[in-house]
Design a protein that fits this description.
single chain; alpha/beta; two-stranded parallel sheet; 3 helices
Length: 160
Protein backbone atom coordinates (compact mmCIF):
# COMPACT_ATOMS: atom_id res chain seq x y z
CA UNK A 1 0.00 0.00 0.00
CA UNK A 2 1.33 3.47 -0.88
CA UNK A 3 2.36 5.76 1.92
CA UNK A 4 0.31 8.97 2.13
CA UNK A 5 2.14 12.24 2.26
CA UNK A 6 0.85 15.13 4.33
CA UNK A 7 0.85 18.36 2.35
CA UNK A 8 0.81 21.80 3.94
CA UNK A 9 -1.83 24.24 2.67
CA UNK A 10 -2.87 27.67 3.86
CA UNK A 11 -6.53 28.00 4.85
CA UNK A 12 -7.17 30.09 1.72
CA UNK A 13 -5.64 27.41 -0.50
CA UNK A 14 -7.60 24.66 1.24
CA UNK A 15 -10.86 26.61 0.81
CA UNK A 16 -10.13 27.38 -2.87
CA UNK A 17 -9.27 23.75 -3.66
CA UNK A 18 -12.30 22.46 -1.74
CA UNK A 19 -14.55 24.78 -3.77
CA UNK A 20 -12.93 23.55 -7.00
CA UNK A 21 -13.54 19.94 -5.95
CA UNK A 22 -17.20 20.59 -5.11
CA UNK A 23 -17.67 22.36 -8.46
CA UNK A 24 -16.07 19.51 -10.42
CA UNK A 25 -18.10 16.87 -8.58
CA UNK A 26 -21.39 18.66 -9.28
CA UNK A 27 -21.54 21.15 -12.14
CA UNK A 28 -18.49 19.76 -13.94
CA UNK A 29 -19.76 16.18 -14.00
CA UNK A 30 -23.24 17.29 -15.09
CA UNK A 31 -21.91 19.41 -17.97
CA UNK A 32 -19.60 16.68 -19.27
CA UNK A 33 -22.37 14.08 -19.03
CA UNK A 34 -24.65 16.37 -21.07
CA UNK A 35 -21.92 16.87 -23.72
CA UNK A 36 -21.32 13.11 -23.92
CA UNK A 37 -25.05 12.40 -24.28
CA UNK A 38 -25.45 15.11 -26.90
CA UNK A 39 -22.48 13.82 -28.91
CA UNK A 40 -23.69 10.22 -28.53
CA UNK A 41 -26.96 11.13 -30.23
CA UNK A 42 -25.04 12.30 -33.31
CA UNK A 43 -24.34 8.78 -34.51
CA UNK A 44 -21.32 6.49 -34.95
CA UNK A 45 -19.16 6.91 -31.84
CA UNK A 46 -15.96 5.67 -33.53
CA UNK A 47 -15.90 8.65 -35.88
CA UNK A 48 -17.50 11.19 -33.58
CA UNK A 49 -14.87 13.80 -32.62
CA UNK A 50 -17.23 15.57 -30.22
CA UNK A 51 -17.89 12.36 -28.34
CA UNK A 52 -14.18 11.50 -28.13
CA UNK A 53 -13.33 15.03 -26.91
CA UNK A 54 -16.06 14.92 -24.26
CA UNK A 55 -14.86 11.51 -23.03
CA UNK A 56 -11.27 12.80 -22.84
CA UNK A 57 -12.44 15.85 -20.90
CA UNK A 58 -14.34 13.56 -18.54
CA UNK A 59 -11.23 11.47 -17.98
CA UNK A 60 -9.09 14.51 -17.17
CA UNK A 61 -11.75 15.91 -14.85
CA UNK A 62 -12.08 12.62 -12.96
CA UNK A 63 -8.29 12.55 -12.58
CA UNK A 64 -8.37 16.05 -11.12
CA UNK A 65 -11.16 15.02 -8.74
CA UNK A 66 -9.06 12.10 -7.48
CA UNK A 67 -5.98 14.36 -7.15
CA UNK A 68 -7.90 17.00 -5.16
CA UNK A 69 -9.64 14.40 -2.98
CA UNK A 70 -6.32 12.85 -1.95
CA UNK A 71 -4.60 16.21 -1.50
CA UNK A 72 -7.35 17.64 0.69
CA UNK A 73 -7.79 14.42 2.68
CA UNK A 74 -4.11 14.40 3.67
CA UNK A 75 -3.58 18.17 3.94
CA UNK A 76 -2.26 19.94 6.99
CA UNK A 77 -4.09 23.25 7.07
CA UNK A 78 -2.93 26.32 8.92
CA UNK A 79 -0.42 29.06 9.23
CA UNK A 80 0.21 29.71 12.87
CA UNK A 81 1.38 26.50 14.56
CA UNK A 82 4.33 25.62 12.35
CA UNK A 83 7.54 24.42 14.02
CA UNK A 84 10.22 26.81 12.76
CA UNK A 85 13.15 25.16 14.54
CA UNK A 86 13.75 22.96 11.50
CA UNK A 87 12.72 22.78 7.86
CA UNK A 88 9.33 21.17 7.36
CA UNK A 89 6.01 21.65 5.59
CA UNK A 90 4.61 25.16 6.02
CA UNK A 91 7.97 26.73 6.91
CA UNK A 92 9.27 29.75 5.02
CA UNK A 93 12.93 29.07 4.31
CA UNK A 94 15.60 31.60 3.47
CA UNK A 95 18.53 29.69 2.00
CA UNK A 96 21.65 30.26 -0.02
CA UNK A 97 21.44 27.96 -3.04
CA UNK A 98 24.69 27.79 -5.01
CA UNK A 99 25.62 31.25 -3.78
CA UNK A 100 22.23 32.92 -4.39
CA UNK A 101 19.88 33.79 -1.54
CA UNK A 102 16.30 32.62 -2.04
CA UNK A 103 13.20 32.74 0.12
CA UNK A 104 10.49 30.12 -0.40
CA UNK A 105 7.78 28.11 1.28
CA UNK A 106 8.08 24.37 1.63
CA UNK A 107 4.63 23.01 0.84
CA UNK A 108 2.20 22.25 -1.94
CA UNK A 109 2.43 24.05 -5.24
CA UNK A 110 -1.36 24.03 -5.08
CA UNK A 111 -0.91 26.79 -2.49
CA UNK A 112 1.08 29.00 -4.84
CA UNK A 113 -1.98 30.62 -6.39
CA UNK A 114 -2.86 32.27 -3.07
CA UNK A 115 0.62 33.21 -1.92
CA UNK A 116 3.10 35.85 -2.94
CA UNK A 117 6.10 33.56 -2.45
CA UNK A 118 7.70 30.70 -4.39
CA UNK A 119 6.53 27.28 -3.20
CA UNK A 120 8.59 24.09 -3.45
CA UNK A 121 7.07 20.68 -2.70
CA UNK A 122 8.49 18.59 0.10
CA UNK A 123 8.93 15.72 -2.37
CA UNK A 124 11.02 17.79 -4.82
CA UNK A 125 14.81 17.19 -4.73
CA UNK A 126 15.35 20.49 -2.86
CA UNK A 127 12.60 19.67 -0.35
CA UNK A 128 13.92 16.17 0.30
CA UNK A 129 17.46 17.51 0.78
CA UNK A 130 16.57 20.17 3.34
CA UNK A 131 13.73 18.45 5.21
CA UNK A 132 14.62 18.46 8.91
CA UNK A 133 17.58 20.86 8.48
CA UNK A 134 18.18 23.68 10.97
CA UNK A 135 19.59 27.19 10.55
CA UNK A 136 23.25 26.93 9.57
CA UNK A 137 22.96 23.42 8.12
CA UNK A 138 24.35 22.82 4.66
CA UNK A 139 23.05 20.13 2.32
CA UNK A 140 23.66 19.01 -1.24
CA UNK A 141 21.12 17.68 -3.72
CA UNK A 142 20.97 16.86 -7.40
CA UNK A 143 18.85 19.27 -9.43
CA UNK A 144 16.63 17.94 -12.24
CA UNK A 145 19.30 19.05 -14.75
CA UNK A 146 21.79 16.68 -13.06
CA UNK A 147 23.90 19.37 -11.38
CA UNK A 148 24.80 19.11 -7.71
CA UNK A 149 23.43 22.07 -5.77
CA UNK A 150 24.57 23.24 -2.34
CA UNK A 151 22.01 24.70 0.04
CA UNK A 152 22.75 26.53 3.30
CA UNK A 153 19.81 27.34 5.57
CA UNK A 154 19.94 31.00 6.61
CA UNK A 155 16.63 31.43 8.44
CA UNK A 156 13.31 29.72 9.09
CA UNK A 157 9.98 31.42 9.85
CA UNK A 158 6.25 30.90 9.80
CA UNK A 159 4.27 32.31 6.89
CA UNK A 160 2.71 35.65 7.73
Amino acid sequence: MAETQTTWLSQDSFDRLSAELRDLETRGREEVAERIESARSEGDLRENGGYQAAREEQSKMEGRIVELTLLLRDAQVGEGNVDTSKVGPGVVVTAEINGKEQKFLLGSRQAAADLDINVFPEAAPLGVAIMGASVGDERTYQAPNGKDMTVKIISLEALR
